[in-house]
Write a structure and sequence with these properties.
The strands form 2 sheets. Strands 5-4-3-6-7-9-8 form a 7-stranded mixed sheet, with helices on both faces. The chain has a two-stranded antiparallel ribbon with strand order 1-2. Helix 6 links the parallel strand 3 and strand 4. The protein folds into 2 domains: about 55 residues, Helicase, Ruva Protein, domain 3; about 200 residues, Vaccinia Virus protein VP39 (Rossmann fold). It is about 35% helix and about 20% strand. Helix 5 runs parallel beside helix 6. It is built from 10 helices and 9 strands. The chain has about 280 residues and is of the alpha/beta class.
């Protein structure tokens, strides 16, 4: 299969940026950069593999599932069926964490509730080299991805537990969560690769999209150390609901993503200053 043929097949399937994706998949097959795809000829075996990958993408299988990788915070994460693909918008949580805790040497205790691929937790631990963290992921399909990423990228400073976030025991200085927040009735209207392939448990936020936040509102006051912060991703149109849901914590602000959409709720336990450092278990 040629690059032009692949581009036409993806375009006919309604894939956005078909030429760019065709080149990236060819680069993946050949093990070269995208710029080299115009001057490198695949072998017959490589061409056959390329045709297979193009067919999968034309069927709206997520691009990251096909390549098995997704970049987040300039880190290379392994992903595949059963785990939510990390999105650039979620990097807003890391940016805001660096604002609320400007001391990169802080000995923090970090939790990621519903860690998925482990992207948020691992990115945070990369930025805070003296921190330790726990990711909670109850999905038996997603948990192995987070465990593998943590072992490869961060080592023993990250624990990935096969537990629901209700099993978390604080106190934590930083708590992250990108909970499911898509209203149930809107999931089927998402992009085909998301609606058909990515785990619905990581997307479905109940009838109004806020079910997980109600649960978090009950848990967070008991998990945050005095002066600790929670950073939660939210979806489009949900910002106005947050103040009433998290009345037991101080809401510092709701930060926008790069598109200007309110994306990250920053909450604080106002009781005291940041708690004393110590190991987590």
């Amino acid at each position: 299969m040629t690059l032009d043929e692949a581009t036409r097949q993806l375009a006919d399937a309604g894939i956005d940026n078909p030429r760019a994706e065709a080149r990236l998949l060819l680069a993946h097959v050949l093990g070269i950069s995208r710029d080299q795809t115009l001057t490198t000829q695949p072998t017959p075996d490589q061409s056959a593999r390329y045709a297979d990958l193009i067919t999968r993408r034309a069927g709206h299988e997520p691009f990251a599932y096909i390549t098995g990788r997704k970049e987040f915070w300039s880190l290379d994460f392994e992903v595949g069926p059963g785990v939510l693909v990390p999105r650039p918008d979620t990097e807003t949580l890391i940016e805001e964490a660096l604002r609320v805790v400007p001391d990169r040497t802080a000995r923090l205790r970090i939790a990621d509730l519903g860690t998925g691929s482990g992207a948020i937790l691992i990115a945070a631990l990369k930025e805070f080299p003296n921190a330790h963290g726990i990711g909670f992921e109850s999905s038996p399909e997603a948990h192995p991805w987070a465990s593998a990423n943590a072992a490869r990228l961060i080592g023993t400073r990250a624990q990935i537990r096969p537990d629901d976030w209700a099993a978390a025991q604080g106190p934590f200085d930083l708590i992250f969560s990108n909970p499911p927040y898509i209203p149930s009735g809107e999931i089927e209207s998402l992009m085909p690769e998301v609606a058909a392939s990515e785990p619905h448990a990581a997307l479905d936020g109940g009838a109004d999209g806020l079910a997980a936040y109600r649960n978090l509102a009950e848990l967070l006051p008991g998990l945050l150390a005095p002066g600790g912060h929670a950073l939660l991703e939210i979806g489009l149109g949900q910002a106005q609901s947050m103040a009433s849901l998290f009345s037991g914590l101080e809401m510092l602000r709701i930060a926008p993503d790069l598109s200007g959409i309110p994306r990250c709720v920053i909450l604080r336990n106002p009781k005291e200053i940041l708690g004393k450092p110590g190991p987590i278990g």
